[in-house]
Design brief:
The protein is mainly beta and about 150 residues long. About 0% of the residues lie in helices and about 55% in strands. It has no helices and 13 strands. The chain has a 5-stranded mixed beta sheet, with no helix packed on it. A 4-stranded antiparallel beta sheet has the order 5-13-8-11, with no helix packed on it. A two-stranded antiparallel sheet has the order 1-4. The two termini are about 20 Å apart.
Length: about 150
């Protein structure tokens, strides 16, 4: 059976709106990522006791696992109105880094190149390494995270 899905452009628009001293200081940035033919959007609940893998990457596709060179865009949004989450971004050489994701905040990963999340990040220097997973832990009480992933 041949696929009937045609690749499409993913359009991402970020808009800031703020008026200071009567002047518009906001702006809009638009990004178009071409050749997207796989997407996943889901809501994951994580608690403060266990780390939850929300996205993982490898050289082969599997349940919940993306081919690392195909990933072009990831958005993780904290849907909680009170509690923050901690995202742990893991690399293949175990030089992970963590970020705080406040209520209603989003964390983005974009890769417009054909390398996806291969040679993407490093916490300890300038030798980029492949991302292997993004894990989440709630701070004090369970939070819902919206996960959106797009791949070529």
């Amino acid at each position: 059976m041949a696929s009937t899905i045609s690749a499409a452009d993913l359009k991402v628009k970020i808009t800031e709106e703020v008026i200071l001293n009567g002047k518009d200081q906001g702006g809009t940035t638009e990004l178009t990522i071409g050749s997207i033919n796989e997407v996943s959007k889901r809501i994951v609940t994580t608690d403060s006791t266990n780390s939850t893998t929300v996205v993982s990457f490898s050289t082969v596709s599997a349940g919940g696992q993306w081919i690392e060179s195909d990933v072009r865009y990831i958005r993780i949004t904290n849907l909680d109105d009170t509690n923050f989450a901690i995202l742990n971004i893991e690399g293949d050489a175990s030089t992970d880094f963590s970020v705080r994701l406040d209520p209603y905040a989003s964390f983005l990963v974009t890769s417009t190149s054909t390398t996806g999340v291969v040679d993407y990040g490093d916490i300890s220097g300038v030798t980029l390494e492949d991302l292997t997973a993004i894990k989440a832990t709630a701070d004090t009480a369970a939070v819902d995270l919206e996960i959106f992933v797009a791949a070529a």
